[in-house]
Amino acid sequence: MLIAFMAVGFLALLAAGFAAAWVTGELAKHSQAVSHTYEVELAIADTRRLIEQGETARRGYLLSPGTPRFLEAYNDAAKALPRAEKKLRQLTYDNPRQQAHIRKLEQHLRELQTLRGQSVELIVAGKVGEARELFQTEMSSARFREVRAVFDQMTREERALLAIRDAQQERSISLFYTVLVVAGLLLAAVAISALLVVVRYTGDLAQSREQLQQLNESLEAIVVDRTSDLSRANDEIQRFAYIVSHDLRSPLVNVMGFTAELEAATATLRELVEQAEQDAPDILTDDARLAAQEDLPEAIGFIRTSTQKMDRLINAILALSRQGRRVLAPETLDLMRMVSQIRDSMAHRLDETGARIDVVGNLPALVSDRVAIEQILSNLIENAVKYRHPDRPVEVQVSGAAGGDRVWIEVSDNGRGIDPRDHERVFDLFRRSGTQDQPGEGIGLAHVRALAYRLGGTITLRSALGEGATFRLSLPSTLSLQEKS
């Protein structure tokens, strides 16, 4: 709403500005036209003055031939007149009627200048009588009336133009003030509207701030309650996992013990069957022989394999449960040294497979739980070495950087890769992806994600089949007390 008001006001003021600029231009143009008219009138008056000055000086020289000041005045007027004519012609070049008047005027002036020149030359030569006779016959008075009539026509023409231009100038001035008043009213309306909108917006903002504060307070209480509930649920799950795994172990131990007794009994039974084959083959059936020598050992082998697998799963659940109950101990970690120690612990396996583990750049500083970080990096690096591509040696790269209050660590490999459809399931407990040709129970990545969450971080995966995998671990640069709880 506020932005719309400001936009409309801005456009309105912009239009008013353009209108004011246009009106100002028109006013300047009309003012220039008026000034031009006055300049033309002044030029007409100046030209008329020089013509009459020259005529007056000539007549004075005729009456007083020995007076040089009349001759000087005549010469000054004669010299200045061509310049005045030229200026007048230039000032009226765009007015055809004035140009026609000037052409008529110039014709009279050429004749008058010729007669004046003859009169002055005769007087200078001492022929004053001939000069006066010539003056009497040239009809100067009639010619002067015609010249004055031309000047009067030119003056009336300029007066008419002046009246028109004055009216135009008055209209421009009126329009200019009208635009100023409209612009002022518009500006006042926009300012008042904007002020009202700002006041309303400020009120709404204050109300929203109060509501937000109340919501934050209630949200904090909800978060505290939910966090407490989650903590209790997590503790309950951990206790449940511990109890379940502990209770599962008891019957599993019995099964494993009875399996051992079955193996011993099977061995005795097999010896008895072999003895019976030698001493009394007629009493031994094929089914009895097959059961003692093949079926029972095979069944016992399946039972032992299953119990061993179940034992490993129970141990894994117990390990996860213990990790959930372990108190985190933040400390400053040297990740470069930690990766080097993990590499040294895997030196024998690296030599056998020709694998390489490299650190790219410098790893960021991190304050977190040493055991948890070691377990995360060990799991990721061991998986990278384990799930190698059959056509190339393993290359593992560990990199990282800091950004704000968080750090990220990436473990990349060139192994077999993980199908994008399995990117989420590989983090689930007991879930694996791809060909199961390596030992494992599908616990490692679930353990990694659980540890990352406990440290206040996340772990994500980028991978495609045949193109390797990149695990990205994001953690707070400093593990806080809230995250430890």
Q: How are the secondary structure elements laid out?
A:
Layout: H1 2-63, H2 68-91, H3 96-124, H4 128-137, H5 140-279, H6 286-325, E1 330-333, H7 335-345, H8 347-353, E2 356-359, E3 366-369, H9 370-386, E4 395-403, E5 406-413, H10 444-454, E6 458-463, E7 469-476, H11 481-484
Parallel strand pairs: 2-4
Antiparallel strand pairs: 1-3, 4-5, 5-7, 6-7
Describe what this molecule looks like in 3D.
The chain is α+β, with helices and mostly antiparallel strands and 485 residues long. It folds into 3 domains: 2-200; 226-324; 328-484, Histidine kinase-like ATPase, C-terminal domain (Heat Shock Protein 90, 2-Layer Sandwich). It is built from 11 helices and 7 strands. The chain has helices at 2-63, 68-91, 96-124, 128-137, 140-279, 286-325, 335-345, 347-353, 370-386, 444-454, 481-484, and strands spanning 330-333, 356-359, 366-369, 395-403, 406-413, 458-463, 469-476. It is rod-shaped and about 195 Å long. The mean pLDDT is 78. Keywords: Coiled coil, Kinase, Membrane, Phosphoprotein, Signal, Transferase, Transmembrane, Transmembrane helix. The chain crosses the membrane at residues 175-199. This is histidine kinase.
